[in-house]
Amino acid sequence: MGGTVNIDGPIQVMKGPGRLEPTVSTNLRILDLPFHAWLEEVFSKITKFCGGEMELLDVSNLHAANVKLVRVKPEMVTQLVEVFSDRVSYKAWIASCPYPSWQTLWRYKQTQAKRGSVLVTTEQGKFFSNGFDLAWAESVGSCSFLHRLQHMGDGLKAIMVDLPSLPMPTIAAVLGHAAAVGFMLALSHDYVLMRKDKEILYMSDLDIGLSLPDYFMALLRKKIHSLMARCDVVLHAAKVKAEEAVKMGFKRKRARKRK
């Protein structure tokens, strides 16, 4: 395994898609790993952080020769946890652009990332994401509610387009419940990593009478191959745990806690 280096720098992060939170300080650790060691290394670190056995839902065909991982402490950041870059260029870029948004980070990586990078998204606190911040949208009154909702929706669609097009594998480490937009955000990644019997994926919009946008359904058709499973998700608002998600047609790999 290659050497490591620490990088300190501020990153502005989001409380769910569409709302920026204050700047936080992050500590990034770069690891150079051969591809055959990558999955074991990444999953063992996440598993060690949360404890127990975990399920990996593989929703893409991943082929890469080698992976460079830059790790940010999960407890320090909301949603965006890991950013991947060349050591020198990242230092120079973070100094010139200290407050990047999600889209800025991902689009920068789309142009700068080299083969072998990987991006991992996870949560800070109890939930991966409960979706749009409806309280924020409603705080300005009914006249501007739809405008704010549309603003958040446009941001989400941009993220859902960016994630599959990144020149690197992407992993959603779901260490807390993912509901509504949070569910869609997780499914937009190449992999979804969950503890075996704790977190749930849940289309909570249905329980409050909201209809699902067409791009939600397009993503669900692509990621959940079983028609009956999709019906459970979009008609019955099923609360899906990792083992149940595997039965819905996801490929599976397992990461066990190291002794």
From TrEMBL:
Keywords on record: Membrane, Transmembrane, Transmembrane helix
Lineage top rank: taxon: Eukaryota
The keyword Transmembrane helix is assigned to this record: yes
Membrane-spanning parts: 166-188
UniProt protein name: Enoyl-CoA delta isomerase 2, peroxisomal-like
Organism in which the protein naturally occurs: Nelumbo nucifera (Sacred lotus)
Phylogenetic classification of the source organism: Eukaryota, Viridiplantae, Streptophyta, Embryophyta, Tracheophyta
